[in-house]
Amino acid sequence: MKLNYHHLYYFWQVAKSGHLTRTAEALHVSQSSLSQQIRQLEERLGQALFIREGRQLHLSEAGRLAFDYAETIFTQGEELSALFAEGGHAHREVVRVGAVATLSRNFQEGFVRPLLGRDDLDLILQSGGMDDLLRRLSAHKLDVVLSNQPVRGDSEHPWRSQRLARQPVSLIAAPHLSPPPAFPKGLSGHAFILPGVENATRHAFDQLCSHYRLTPKIAAEVDDMAMMRLLARDTQHIAVMPPVVVRDELHNGTLKDYGALPGVWEEFYAITIQRRFESPSLKALLTRSGESLLD
Amino acid sequence: MKLNYHHLYYFWQVAKSGHLTRTAEALHVSQSSLSQQIRQLEERLGQALFIREGRQLHLSEAGRLAFDYAETIFTQGEELSALFAEGGHAHREVVRVGAVATLSRNFQEGFVRPLLGRDDLDLILQSGGMDDLLRRLSAHKLDVVLSNQPVRGDSEHPWRSQRLARQPVSLIAAPHLSPPPAFPKGLSGHAFILPGVENATRHAFDQLCSHYRLTPKIAAEVDDMAMMRLLARDTQHIAVMPPVVVRDELHNGTLKDYGALPGVWEEFYAITIQRRFESPSLKALLTRSGESLLD
DNA sequence: ATAAATCGTTCTTTAAAACAGAACGAACAG
DNA sequence: CTGTTCGTTCTGTTTTAAAGAACGATTTAT
């Protein structure tokens, strides 16, 4: 037995104003009709939504609960309605991409590159924390979230994490360092700029160090790749990061790649909610091979 | 001309499965009925929601948009429905209070104290950042947010900030300090533990210092009142905080109150969204005099 | 290649709902 | 005590949703 949204709508309107007669006039229906349909809703839900005191209506506790739901339901509906009302113009395709703020900008750019040239489509890029982005994903305010970590979905949040690409992680530092850093030997006297502890790359790095019984000196822990790039450029410390991030600096000799760390990868995941109808453009993005994303 | 949620529901169901006939069977209606009502929805919105290719249905861009809205609308509806379905038992009153994590725990406790004894009511307390809490407030997942700062509401977010109480802010430190700190003189040689710069109390403190041309030495900036309490207890520095926070320590002599700062107040605000029907218990909380909150 | 089956649309009829109007009763104002 | 106001209930009417049949287009099977 399904919930009747028509009834719920009337309930919502009456609950908002608190008056049956006035609402009936505003909605251009008779008060008897309103009264009946609200009663039907109450019967359907099995509980009184209003407490009748004399000739006044007060929300019951159940009513307050229902009202909260009705509020989000119908504000959404009105938003939708308004969206279609404003000019009958056809809707352009929209792809909304969220990326965790700590993600390499190069990668983000590589991901959306196929969409950049197209003027038949709106691209929306948003940065944020993982929690925030996933919330937006669940609320259908985003189509995909880019992250360097997969997430485990559950029945309530049926997220799907798909690895798009992985890239090696190197020791990056100023050129002409002496002694030149190398892994696993030749690190003495150097300090490190590392990703923060909640980063998966950092975890892999720590494991690697532990395996070789190294306790590297840490100069800084940085979450943001753009920030790490700056620090690598402006200090004499060794940054542990994917070379792509500092591609330009490597090319023009400002920085040098002292070699990749074995078994340490920066990984990239696309997190989506499984849907029957994915946007065709997004689908195309997700089925590309990983290579083209990382150059 | 209002949006027909009945039509939207059918559209949502068909869009989810992608098949009209199967959906018709699942919903126990004829496919003709489904087809017609979806067509009516399209006419109402002025745009095709499905693209008919041969005998297949694909979502149009407008359809994808509508589907996203429908999704949130009807998942909310199903949640509501489920809530009432699980046993016909009457709903207990619920008061959901959010508090910014930096707020004094004493104050939070004082605020909800009248509700603690009542077993006819569920109390839900949540901590979090201001952004997060306000989002929950807007989504009707919270009834009130406690903060030490007011927020300005706008048309989209009609928040109402109501000052509940204010309390003096004192210099708090270990007893028997020499020289005993005093304001505005007698601060030399002492360092301070202060609230973070985004805190309104800190702002008032800085203004006061600037007025007396003082540049106090800062030992630590702490956002969390509970943390500040610990630091005050375990260091020799002077904490700038409301005495309430360390009431116990003041009482048993672990800490000493060296006097209130003139014109500096810690303020407490309750942020709500204006509604016609507030929970009576919440209403009672909000109309109390401020004094009882702070002892 | 042609027949049969599948799937969505359209038209017409039938069933179900939403609706309006009148009668009723309780609460409040003067 | 007498209007008037406001919500409820009952009854008949109107509107809307639903079912069924006919149709056309597309895919599958023979």
From TrEMBL, chains A, B:
Q: Which Pfam families match?
A: HTH_1, LysR_substrate
InterPro entries assigned to the protein according to its UniProt record, in alphabetical order: LysR_HTH_N, LysR_subst-bd, WH-like_DNA-bd_sf, WH_DNA-bd_sf
SUPFAM superfamilies this protein is in?
Periplasmic binding protein-like II, Winged helix' DNA-binding domain
Q: Where is the HTH lysR-type domain?
A: 1-60
Do the record's keywords include Nucleus? no
**Keywords assigned by UniProt, alphabetized:** DNA-binding, Transcription, Transcription regulation
Similarity comment text for this entry: Belongs to the LysR transcriptional regulatory family.
Q: Report what the protein is called.
A: LysR family transcriptional regulator
The source organism is: Vreelandella lutescens
